[in-house]
Amino acid sequence: CAAPVVAIDGPVASGKSSVGKAAAQILGLRFLDTGIMYRAVTWLALHSGVAATDTGAVAELAAACRMELAQSDNTDAAIMVDGKPLGTELMSADVDENVSAVSAVRAVRVELVRQQRGIASSGAMVMAGRDIGSVVLPNADLKLYIDAAPEERARRRHAQILLVDPGIQYDRVLADTLRRDGLDMERADSPLVAAADAVIIRTDDMDFEQTVSAVVSAIQSVA
Ligand code: C5P
Description:
By secondary structure, the protein is an alpha/beta fold. The protein has helices at residues 16-27, 35-47, 55-64, 93-103, 106-120, 132-136, 150-162, 170-186, 208-222, and strands spanning 5-9, 30-33, 67-69, 79-81, 84-86, 125-129, 142-147, 199-202. This is (d)CMP kinase.
């Protein structure tokens, strides 16, 4: 397969997005982190006075916006929403707190999955998320599921958050990681699950470079 479509799923802070992005860059493939799309709808809701729990209004926001991949030379932008680049604002604590509620709305998922399939239909790429191998791209050429113990994932997130919030406690990050894992795994629509034909990569004992190498090799083996 000369133009592989690769699905990468995994829980909060498993590294799927940073590893997927680095592997895609090495191989010259397009990359989409679908979590950013759920974050963008959440951000739009917060900025237009729509409550994240108002499912009808949130679904209308999702249906009314058009998301596209940001140009790879625009490193500040994670995604283009109606032509406007959005980046670091999507990683705020406000968005973190509300994104699980927004991503549990069926009509939001239907709309974003439609846009994700549209983006994938134009050729080879790596797409990362929670339901890519199981729902969005069931015919992907390769499905990877990246995982690590919650304590290890919380440890990595804690180290990252410390850079911007020096007072953050590890226990709080662990609790938040477990809370979001629970919401993602227990929701009725498209819960986080490894697809039956996914290759599982456990990264507890791997560093970032080792994980990127493992993902690059796996993609090369199908490309
Ligand atoms: O990956 P990230 O943590 O940025 O994703 C934000 C949220 O979006 C997740 O907690 C999850 O609830 C949701 N999400 C999803 N399906 C995807 C990607 C993300 O439900 N494919």
